[in-house]
C-alpha cells in the first residue's frame, strides 16, 4: 500500500498515468520506474529535482516520495544567485535529472542521478509518517531570498482529497496542463493530483491554446491554468471557434495562483458556455478554498473553504470578523491539515507566519459574501508582486538590481498588466546619469541572477527616489 499513490500498487497497471508529448507511462510502468528510482535515492534526507517539463521530473518526484524522502524542485531557469541560495539552504544529497539535461556549474558538486523512465524496480514498502516532509518548495517573501516551505505528506493527501470532493475529481478524469513543475500548482495539483486519483495527466511541455484544444478534443476532461493562460485563451477565442468548441467539451476548467479578471471569466463563459472554476491556495497552505462543481461559479470569487480547512477573516488587531456582508475586509487566516510545517532553517519566519493559536497568516485580504463565498480583494504587502501567476518579492529584485554596477538606487513595484496580472516595474537612480544601463541590460541581469520571470518589464530612470524623513522609500509616491 502506498499512502500517497494507492493506484501505483492497487490500480490497473495498463492504465495511462502520464503523457508528455509523444512519451507516456502507464501506471505499471510508472510504478516500476519510480520504484527503481526510489531504490537509488536511498537513505538521504532530501534530493533536488531539476524540474524541466518532462516525464523524468514526474518520475523523479514520485520516486522520491516512494522512497519516503523529500524533493526540492528546482526551476531549470533559475539564475546563479537563486540557485546558489536554494542549494546551500536545502543541502540536497543529490540532484535528479533527465539523462540529457545540461546542469549549470552550481550543481556540478552534487552527485547526479539520471532518471531512467524505463527502469524496473519494486515499489518499496511505505514506512513514512504523515508528518514527514514530502516537498520543499521555494517561495518569495517581500524581502530577502526565497524561503523553503516544508510541505508534509499529510498536506498533499489532505489537499488533493479535498479538491476531489469539491470537483468530483476521479480516476476517470484526464487533465491537460502546461504549468511549470517547480511550483505547487503544476506539480502538486497538476501531476500528483491525477496520480493520487488514479487518473491521467497530459503535460503540454509549454502552454499554448492549440495544445489545450487538441487534448480536450482527444478525451481530456479538465484543464488547469493561471489567469495569464485564461487571458490568452480569452484573446484567442473570437478568431478560433475550434478552441471555443474544445473548451465547451471540458468537464472542468480551473484557474488559480492569482485572481482571474472578471472580464476574462465572462468572455470565456460567453464563447464556450463554461464558467471557469476558481480555487485559492498558497505554497505554504496548498489549497484553501474553491468553487465547487455542484456550486455556482461566480466571477471574482474563490468559493468556499475546502473540507478540513478552517478559514477566518481578521481585523488588523487580530479580532475575528463574523460578518458575511460582502463588505468587511479582513486578512485571511487558515488552519488545517493542508498546511506546511515550517520554513526550512527559518524559525523566525515560521513563528512570524503563525498566530499563537496556530492560524497561518496568508497576507491576502478578502470579504465573505452572504452565502460564505470568499472574495479576495487584495494583498497586505504591496511588496509582493504576482506576475503570470508567479509570486515575486520586490526586495529580491531590488537587491539584484543594486548588484549591477550602473545602479545606485533601486525600487521595484508591480503595476496592472492585462496579460500578466501585474508587471514588474523598476525605478532606478543610475550611478552615472549620462550613461545609464539600458532596460534590456537590467532585465538580462535580473534574469541571469534570479529567474527570467523576475525580470523588470519596464524601467524608469530618476534623479532620486522619493523618501520619507526616516529615509524609507515611499513606493506609493512612485507613479507613471
Ligand atoms: C525573456 N526570456 C528571457 C529573458 N527575457 N530569458 C532570459 N533572459 C531574459 N532577459 C524568456 C523566458 O525565459 C521565456 O522563454 C520567454 O522568454 C518568455 O518569457 P515570459 O514572458 O516570462 O513568459 P511567458 O511566455 O509570458 O509566460 C507566461 C506563462 C508563465 C506561461 C503564463 O508566466 C507561467 O508559466 N506561469 C505559471 C506560474 C505558476 O505556475 N505559478 C504557480 C505558483 P521560453 O519562450 O523559452 O519559454 S504556485 C501558487 O501560486 C499557489 C500554490 C497556487 O495557488 O497555485
Ligand atoms: P504562491 O506563494 O506563489 O504560492 O502564491 C500564493 C498567492 O497567490 C496567494 O497568497 C494569493 O495572493 C494568490 N492566489 C492564489 N490563488 C488565487 C486566486 N484564485 N485568486 C486570487 N489570488 C490567488
Automatic annotation (TrEMBL):
Residues 12-344 form the AMP-dependent synthetase/ligase domain. SUPFAM superfamilies: Acetyl-CoA synthetase-like. Signal peptide: none annotated. Residues 396-472 form the AMP-binding enzyme C-terminal domain. InterPro entries: AMP-bd_C, AMP-bd_C_sf, AMP-binding_CS, AMP-dep_synth/lig_dom, ANL_N_sf. Coiled coil: none annotated. PROSITE patterns: AMP_BINDING (PS00455). Belongs to the ATP-dependent AMP-binding enzyme family. NCBIfam families: PRK07787.1 (NF005858). This is Acyl-CoA synthetase. It comes from Streptomyces sp. 900105755. The lineage of its organism: Bacteria, Bacillati, Actinomycetota, Actinomycetes, Kitasatosporales.
Amino acid at each position: 500500500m502506498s499512502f500517497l499513490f494507492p493506484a501505483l500498487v492497487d490500480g490497473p497497471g495498463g492504465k495511462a498515468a502520464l503523457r508528455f508529448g509523444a512519451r507516456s507511462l502507464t501506471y505499471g510502468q510508472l510504478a516500476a520506474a519510480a520504484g527503481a528510482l526510489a531504490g537509488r535515492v536511498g537513505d538521504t534526507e532530501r534530493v533536488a529535482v531539476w524540474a524541466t517539463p518532462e516525464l523524468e521530473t514526474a518520475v523523479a518526484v514520485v520516486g522520491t516520495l516512494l522512497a519516503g524522502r523529500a524533493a526540492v524542485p528546482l526551476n531549470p531557469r533559475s539564475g546563479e544567485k537563486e540557485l546558489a541560495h536554494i542549494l546551500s539552504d536545502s543541502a540536497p544529497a543529490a540532484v535528479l535529472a533527465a539523462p540529457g539535461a545540461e546542469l549549470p556549474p552550481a550543481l556540478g558538486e552534487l552527485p547526479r542521478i539520471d532518471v531512467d523512465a524505463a527502469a524496473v524496480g519494486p515499489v518499496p514498502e511505505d514506512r513514512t509518517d504523515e508528518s514527514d516532509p514530502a516537498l520543499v518548495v521555494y517561495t518569495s517573501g517581500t524581502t530577502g531570498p526565497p524561503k523553503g516551505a516544508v510541505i508534509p505528506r499529510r498536506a498533499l493527501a489532505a489537499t488533493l482529497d479535498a479538491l476531489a470532493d469539491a470537483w468530483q475529481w476521479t480516476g476517470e478524469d484526464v487533465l491537460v496542463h502546461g504549468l511549470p513543475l517547480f511550483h505547487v500548482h503544476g506539480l502538486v495539483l497538476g501531476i500528483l493530483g491525477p496520480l493520487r486519483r488514479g487518473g491521467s495527466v497530459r503535460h503540454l511541455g509549454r502552454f499554448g491554446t492549440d495544445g489545450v484544444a487538441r487534448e480536450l478534443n482527444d478525451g481530456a476532461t479538465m484543464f488547469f491554468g493561471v489567469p495569464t493562460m485564461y487571458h490568452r485563451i480569452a484573446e484567442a477565442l473570437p478568431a478560433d471557434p475550434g478552441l471555443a468548441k474544445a473548451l465547451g467539451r471540458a468537464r472542468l476548467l480551473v484557474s488559480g495562483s492569482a485572481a482571474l479578471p472578471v472580464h476574462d471569466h465572462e468572455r470565456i463563459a460567453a464563447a464556450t458556455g463554461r464558467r471557469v472554476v476558481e480555487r485559492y491556495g498558497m505554497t505554504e497552505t496548498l489549497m484553501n478554498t474553491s468553487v465547487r462543481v455542484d456550486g455556482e461559479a461566480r466571477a471574482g470569487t474563490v468559493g468556499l473553504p475546502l473540507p478540513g480547512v478552517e478559514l477566518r477573516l481578521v481585523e488588523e488587531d487580530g479580532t475575528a470578523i463574523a460578518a458575511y456582508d460582502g463588505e468587511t475586509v479582513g486578512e485571511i487566516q487558515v488552519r488545517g491539515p493542508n498546511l506546511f510545517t515550517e520554513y526550512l532553517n527559518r524559525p523566525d519566519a515560521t513563528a512570524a507566519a503563525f498566530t499563537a493559536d496556530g492560524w497561518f497568516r496568508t497576507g491576502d485580504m478578502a470579504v465573505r459574501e452572504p452565502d460564505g463565498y470568499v472574495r479576495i480583494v487584495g494583498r497586505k504587502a504591496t511588496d509582493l508582486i504576482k506576475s503570470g501567476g508567479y509570486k515575486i518579492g520586490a526586495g529580491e529584485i531590488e537587491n539584484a538590481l543594486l548588484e549591477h554596477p550602473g545602479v545606485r538606487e533601486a525600487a521595484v513595484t508591480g503595476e496592472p498588466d492585462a496579460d500578466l496580472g501585474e508587471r514588474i516595474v523598476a525605478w532606478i537612480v543610475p550611478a552615472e546619469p549620462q550613461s545609464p544601463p539600458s532596460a534590456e541590460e537590467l532585465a538580462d541581469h535580473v534574469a541571469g541572477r534570479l529567474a527570467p520571470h523576475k525580470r523588470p518589464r519596464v524601467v524608469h530612470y530618476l534623479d532620486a527616489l522619493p523618501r520619507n524623513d526616516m529615509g524609507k522609500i515611499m513606493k506609493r509616491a512612485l507613479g507613471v
